[in-house]
Write a structure and sequence with these properties.
This protein is of the alpha/beta class. The chain has ten helices and 15 strands. The longest helix has 20 residues. This is Alcohol dehydrogenase.
């Protein structure tokens, strides 16, 4: 069969022939229909991610995707071991797979699990968003930030959502869904957050950027909090597209009721990740099938994997590879 094959850690995959996968106890061979090209997939293939320690070379990358079982059902599944889903066929555990609604295309379904479950965990577990909350999404025009912005209202009942991002077209679309918007690089982020927080304090901040934008938001939250008052704001660090570090004045954490936490494989209990797959993912797939959430995708052929691997995806778009 044809597959994307990594022969050395840190090197991109090549399009090559591999022997057919052989099923074992609790696994079946399924025909892959689509596989999302995510940062997690690239991280594992680099050899730097801890999951790579359990794998042997040569390996097929591709953490999650959509496959068709022998009985005709399409499922969202995870590629097992060193046999990922950037291939024509893959080994999966059918007991851990989630069925894809008939009305949902395989490309969209493959793109949804990674950003969808991450957004759900961020909103439900780390930020603990509840109905009526005021939520700021920093980096809302990215793939996961866009889904989090949509889900904050549609699934968690947030009273108001503010979307901050750079992509003007995507920001305009998020505005059409009911979110207030801040255009990074054009609007004064600190001034806008200060104004909004003073008028209605933020209950949660979902940060997919970090770096300088985070520094501005931290400062704005403190500046907008009147002396002698208290409001709890849950600041959740998820991504670092704008920088890996921040400089934070210690007075900020003394001047405002900010609690900061992160979302990642090491900061979220395993049972929460499991709940995201068994409870949240079926709901997300149904919402996507019904047109209640929107996710930008770009389908690319597996035969072009060597070029796709090094290209930058369009802003806010998930690249999905099809055999």
């Amino acid at each position: 069969m044809k597959a994307a094959v990594v022969n050395a850690w840190g090197q991109g995959p090549v399009y090559a022939d591999l022997p057919e996968p052989q099923p074992g106890e609790g696994t079946v061979v399924a025909d892959v229909e689509a596989c999302a090209l995510t940062n997690l997939t690239k991280g594992i293939a680099s050899g730097k991610h801890y999951a790579a320690k359990t794998m042997q070379l040569p390996m097929v990358p591709g953490f999650d995707g959509v496959a068709r079982l022998a009985d005709g059902r399409r499922v969202c599944a995870v590629g097992l071991g060193s046999g990922g889903m950037l291939a024509e066929r893959a080994l999966i555990d059918p007991d851990r797979a989630v069925e894809v609604p008939e009305r949902l295309d395989s490309v969209t379904a493959a793109a949804l699990p990674n950003p969808g479950t991450s957004a759900w965990i961020t909103l439900s577990y780390a930020a603990a968003v509840k109905p009526g909350d005021h939520v700021l999404v920093l980096g809302a025009t990215g793939v996961t930030g866009s889904l989090a912005t949509q889900l904050a209202r549609s699934m968690f009942g947030a009273g108001a959502v503010v979307a901050a991002g750079r992509d003007a077209d995507r920001l305009q679309w998020l505005g059409s869904t009911g979110a207030q918007t801040i255009r990074l690089g054009e609007d004064d982020l600190a001034a806008r957050v200060t104004e909004l927080h003073a008028a209605r304090p933020f209950d949660a901040v979902l940060d997919y950027l970090w770096g300088e934008p985070a520094e501005q938001v931290f400062g704005a939250l403190a500046a907008a909090t009147p002396a002698g008052t208290f409001h709890a704001t849950r600041y959740v660090q998820v991504g670092s597209m704008a920088g890996a570090t921040v400089t934070l004045d210690a007075a900020v954490l003394r001047a405002a009721g900010i609690t900061a936490t992160g979302v990642g494989l090491g900061s979220v209990p395993p049972q929460v990740w499991q709940q995201a797959n068994t409870e949240a993912l079926p709901k997300l797939l149904s919402m996507a099938a019904a047109g209640e959430i929107e996710l930008r995708t770009q389908a690319r052929p597996l035969s072009d994997i060597e070029r796709i691997w090094t290209e930058s995806a369009p802003s806010g778009t998930r690249v999905v590879v099809t055999p």
